[in-house]
Amino acid sequence: MTQQDLQTDVLVVGAGLGGIAAALAAAGRGARVVLTEEHPWIGGQLTSQAVPPDEHPWVERFGVTARYRTLRDGIRDVYRRRYPLTGAARAWPALNPGAGWVSKLCHEPRVAVGVLEEMLAPYRSSGRIRLLERVRPTSATTDGDRVTSVTLGSVVGGPDVTVSAAYTIDTTETGELLPLTGTEYVTGFEAASETGEPSAPDIAQPDNVQALSVCFAVEHTGGDHTIDRPERYDFWRSYAPAAWRGERLLSWTAPNPRTLVLDERSFTPNPGDDPLRVDADQSKNAGDGNLWLFRRIAARDLLEPGFRDSDLCLVNWPSIDYFLDHVLDVPREVEQARIADARQLSLSMLYWMQTEAPRADGGTGFPGLRLRPDVMGSADGLAQAAYHRESRRIRAVTTVTENDVSHAVRGERGATRYDDSVGVGMYRIDLHPSTGGDTYIDVPSTPFEIPLGALLPRRTTNLLAGNKNIGTTHITNGCYRLHPVEWNAGEAAGHLAAHCLATGHVPHEVQEKPELLADYQRELTATGIELRWPEGEVHPY
User: Fold this and answer.
1) Phi-psi region of 471 (alpha: psi -120 to 50; beta: other; left: phi over 0)
2) Longest Cα pair distance anywhere in the chain, in angstroms?
3) In whole angstroms, what is the distance from residue 353 CA to residue 264 CA?
4) Whole-prediction pTM
5) Can you tell me whether residue 395 is helix, strand or coil?
6) Which ranges of the sequence are coiled-coil (predicted)?
7) Burial level of 296, CB count in 10 A (0-12/13-18/19+)?
8) Given this model, what pLDDT does residue 465 score?
9) What value does the mean pLDDT of the chain take?
10) Confidence bin at 200 (pLDDT 50/70/90)
11) Of the candidates 128, 302, 124, 344, which has an alpha carbon nearest to the alpha carbon of residue 216?
12) How far apart are CA 79 and CA 112, in angstroms?
């Protein structure tokens, strides 16, 4: 097929949350942007990966960017305008459509897709943003320390597209541009001798990467909706990871991330709870006692009686964490085979729930559990894309380590303050079991800042990081990988690219020179990006 060639100011590869934020920020400042996406839906972990937003307890008041708040407000607005909410639900200022305990805003992923599309719409209409759909990066060219072009291959049989840009922002889920552009990066666990982190091993473990997961949504209705027995069911049914201490992965039992003691969770579909009483604050309550409620994305009792027969439960639990092997820096066919095996794990968990899972009434199996392919936007009912908790990470100008955010290390001093802060975030250092055999690493952290230096590779001058590929370690990735932090990093990167285009300065120069940095930070603040946490308003957890 004929190859297309495009030229633009800013190329943003990956239309996850960081990528959309980067494109909006750059286009909002007048830059021409090409934005790309591999999967059918834009939105990354919020949509195609179907992960409800993990956020901090103060999200309703502060600690996220104005554009991220617009996204959250837009999602609630859809429910208020289009769904038959009860009077009490409609009057709930902080409406949580799913009434899940993991987040103050659990919702169906398709609703977020529509809101994100609406946010992009005026820029796409004007031609300021051009979205290339169903493509992935396959190669790149460089000139010294500059990226000159990226070639994108179609995943549906279309022509290749080569895009040349003044600035390129890598907002892919696994840092795919880093090896293609020769940008230095790290994978897996760094050594304590390099980072000084108390939780790091003595020797680097580049193949030791956090589990990925393939999520899915189920409802519980009458009838038997049992799926065909998955091909790998016998393997996954008997698999007992070391961290589970003899218990099987397919069970209601899993290690408590904070104590590592095995906890037995419950599972009661449609329990008849009062969704208006859900207090989704993980600093108070992990919320995973009844797994049905933990990541519920649609609460039927917030709607007029009879409109919905069942809640929708989003399955993203320890039992579907895939940590047999990683998918970074392996041949494409190996990557796809491992993700296919992760999909088999998820289907096996569903089949186990439908046929063998113990019930509170003493019986076994929930055959009334039904996949919702329409909710996931996929043929098989699983999420369109795997949820990658950990990416390749740039060798950055500034690398955030455990010593910068751990409450045990920092104490009352709080997290490291950065002169070049471009945003804020908060979450515990929460690492899932990993491919090196580690169990959970769960460390209390303090409200932290995002340094501009973490978005800048040490050498490459016009490539910026805007997703989970920023300058964190294996450990601090565990608290910087969440939805609002990814959005903030991408938004700051998009602003920086447009700022440099407008001023003629280069990113490293902006980060290094106080007067240039101050000008850039004033622009961030003017667009609603918070650079510091309010004094006395936040606490570690």
Assistant:
1) beta
2) 70
3) 15
4) 0.98
5) coil
6) none
7) buried
8) 99
9) 97
10) very high
11) 344
12) 11
